[in-house]
Amino acid sequence: MAEIKIESFAKINLCLDVLKRREDGYHEIKTVMQQIDLKDIITLKDNEDKVIIETNHPQVPTDSTNLVYKAWKLLSNRYNIDKGVYIKIDKNIPVAAGLAGGSSNAAAVLKGLNELWSLNISQKELMELAAQIGADVPFCIMGGTALAEGIGEKLTKLSSFSDKLILLAKPSISVSTAYVYKNLELNKIDFRPNTNDIIRYIEENNLESLATNMGNVLETVTIKEYPIIKEIKDKMIQYGALGSLMSGSGPTVFGIFKNEDDAIKCKAELSKHIDTVHVVKTL
């Protein structure tokens, strides 16, 4: 029986601006997305008659609500493939954390089934299909560094920003993305990140300027609700981070470090109070 293993990488947002609320209820955003080397491993095997999803994480659904199921359904319907699949998800990316773990898993299944079923779908077409599953899924197909616009599905590949040292910390709270966007008051945002500047700093490989000019307008909602997010940001700066930001709608916070010793010391300090802390690198 053929078996395929695929790496499924997390992402952070180096900046995130929300431009407006659309009539359909979605929000227009402008964000720079960056893949990091924190990853899940997805194993796929042929299974004749049904979809079986297994995982090592109790909070990950194993039914049709999981995005990996939606990825299977999308491809099997589109290409008239009448068979199931066995999907095993070895989770390392925190769940509901603003790191696109579920979206990344769905992207990995699209890529894996493309190979397992010998469909020969181009990356461009795979990304177009991925947009039907969720706004972050096309980026997880593309990877690297990208500007995302629209609801996140309009992607522009950017210069590589790989091998940068990142400390991630996820407090043990759950944040609803829908709640954050619903409570975002666009007319009361004092600071908006300058996305064009962030892109220029990436092109110049100017780590210090990028780190000190990052911004995420969703922090205006999430920090009010969960002050621990600001406490983590402050702690990272105190321990030598060049800059610190909440990723996506949270609650994960990341810091950009130049010095690995500083990142390791900060990890040790944060780990006293927070279960999920990782030193990672950008891809």
TrEMBL record:
<keyword id="KW-0067">ATP-binding</keyword>
<comment type="pathway">
    <text>Isoprenoid biosynthesis; isopentenyl diphosphate biosynthesis via DXP pathway; isopentenyl diphosphate from 1-deoxy-D-xylulose 5-phosphate: step 3/6.</text>
</comment>
<keyword id="KW-0414">Isoprene biosynthesis</keyword>
<keyword id="KW-0418">Kinase</keyword>
<dbReference type="InterPro" id="IPR004424">
    <property type="entry name" value="IspE"/>
</dbReference>
<dbReference type="Pfam" id="PF00288">
    <property type="entry name" value="GHMP_kinases_N"/>
</dbReference>
<dbReference type="Pfam" id="PF08544">
    <property type="entry name" value="GHMP_kinases_C"/>
</dbReference>
<protein>
    <recommendedName>
        <fullName>4-diphosphocytidyl-2-C-methyl-D-erythritol kinase</fullName>
        <ecNumber>2.7.1.148</ecNumber>
    </recommendedName>
</protein>
<feature type="active site">
    <location>
        <position position="136"/>
    </location>
</feature>
<dbReference type="GO" id="GO:0050515">
    <property type="term" value="F:4-(cytidine 5'-diphospho)-2-C-methyl-D-erythritol kinase activity"/>
</dbReference>
<dbReference type="InterPro" id="IPR014721">
    <property type="entry name" value="Ribsml_uS5_D2-typ_fold_subgr"/>
</dbReference>
<comment type="function">
    <text>Catalyzes the phosphorylation of the position 2 hydroxy group of 4-diphosphocytidyl-2C-methyl-D-erythritol.</text>
</comment>
<feature type="domain" description="GHMP kinase N-terminal">
    <location>
        <begin position="66"/>
        <end position="144"/>
    </location>
</feature>
<dbReference type="InterPro" id="IPR036554">
    <property type="entry name" value="GHMP_kinase_C_sf"/>
</dbReference>
<keyword id="KW-0547">Nucleotide-binding</keyword>
<dbReference type="InterPro" id="IPR020568">
    <property type="entry name" value="Ribosomal_Su5_D2-typ_SF"/>
</dbReference>
<dbReference type="InterPro" id="IPR006204">
    <property type="entry name" value="GHMP_kinase_N_dom"/>
</dbReference>
<dbReference type="GO" id="GO:0016114">
    <property type="term" value="P:terpenoid biosynthetic process"/>
</dbReference>
<dbReference type="GO" id="GO:0005524">
    <property type="term" value="F:ATP binding"/>
</dbReference>
<dbReference type="InterPro" id="IPR013750">
    <property type="entry name" value="GHMP_kinase_C_dom"/>
</dbReference>
<feature type="domain" description="GHMP kinase C-terminal">
    <location>
        <begin position="199"/>
        <end position="273"/>
    </location>
</feature>
<dbReference type="GO" id="GO:0019288">
    <property type="term" value="P:isopentenyl diphosphate biosynthetic process, methylerythritol 4-phosphate pathway"/>
</dbReference>
<feature type="binding site">
    <location>
        <begin position="94"/>
        <end position="104"/>
    </location>
    <ligand>
        <name>ATP</name>
    </ligand>
</feature>
<comment type="similarity">
    <text>Belongs to the GHMP kinase family. IspE subfamily.</text>
</comment>
<keyword id="KW-0808">Transferase</keyword>
<feature type="active site">
    <location>
        <position position="11"/>
    </location>
</feature>
